[in-house]
């Protein structure tokens, strides 16, 4: 194995990310959703009453207003979300997950579990736990401001 200062993790992480995205998209395509749409549905599913303002979805999904608007529009066409107005501020749009959207999330969880089992299949239980803990640490470090 090369010395640690010669190992470049970013290309490896990118390869894994691309492979996972392909696999998730292939598996959820049968449900008629994309990974980006699924991520938004999962955020709504986790929210109180399954409702979030578009602005909060932008923040949680780390995408622009135009992107959220497009994703929500496509999910609305598929009857997976509804768009409602805020009772206290008519200018605020809220996305609410529907029963069909909840069902899509439930199906997606089964796919995600299968993909995660595949991802970790080459590791022992101890290695898998360590790998996940290290991913959390790396993810946390990436959220810190840069110098």
Number of alpha- plus pi-helical segments: 6
What's the number of domains?
1
Q: Provide the spatial order of strands within the biggest beta sheet.
A: 1-3-2
Query: What gross morphology would you assign?
Result: globular
Query: pLDDT under 50 segments (min length 5)?
Result: none
What oligomerization state is this entry in? single chain
Mean pLDDT: 89
User: For the report, how would you describe the main beta sheet?
Assistant: 3 strands, antiparallel
Instruction: State which percent range the strand residues make up.
Output: 5-15%
SSE layout and pairings?
Elements: H1 9-28, H2 35-46, E1 51-53, H3 54-61, H4 65-77, E2 81-85, E3 93-97, H5 99-120, H6 125-143
Antiparallel strand pairs: 1-3, 2-3
Helix pairs in contact: 1-5, 2-5, 3-4
Model description:
With 147 residues, the chain is mainly alpha-helical. It has one domain: Winged helix-like DNA-binding domain superfamily/Winged helix DNA-binding domain (Arc Repressor Mutant, subunit A). It has six helices and three strands, in the order ααβααββαα. β2 and β3 form a beta hairpin. The relative contact order is 0.11. The model has no long low-confidence stretch (mean pLDDT 89).
In short:
The protein has 6 helices and 3 strands, in the order ααβααββαα. It is mainly α and 147 residues long.
């Amino acid at each position: 194995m090369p010395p640690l200062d010669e190992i470049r993790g970013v290309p490896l992480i990118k390869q894994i990310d691309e492979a996972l995205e392909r696999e998730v998209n292939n598996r959820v395509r049968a449900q008629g959703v994309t990974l980006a749409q699924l991520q938004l549905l999962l955020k709504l599913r986790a929210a109180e009453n399954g409702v979030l303002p578009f602005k909060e979805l932008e923040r949680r999904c780390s995408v622009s207003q135009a992107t959220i608007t497009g994703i929500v529009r496509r999910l609305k066409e598929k009857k997976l979300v509804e768009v409602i107005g805020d009772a206290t501020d008519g200018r605020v749009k809220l996305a609410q997950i529907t029963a069909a959207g909840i069902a899509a999330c439930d199906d997606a969880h089964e796919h995600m579990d299968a993909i995660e089992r595949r991802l970790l299949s080459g590791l022992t239980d101890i290695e898998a736990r360590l790998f996940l803990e290290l991913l959390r640490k790396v993810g946390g470090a990436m959220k810190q401001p840069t110098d």
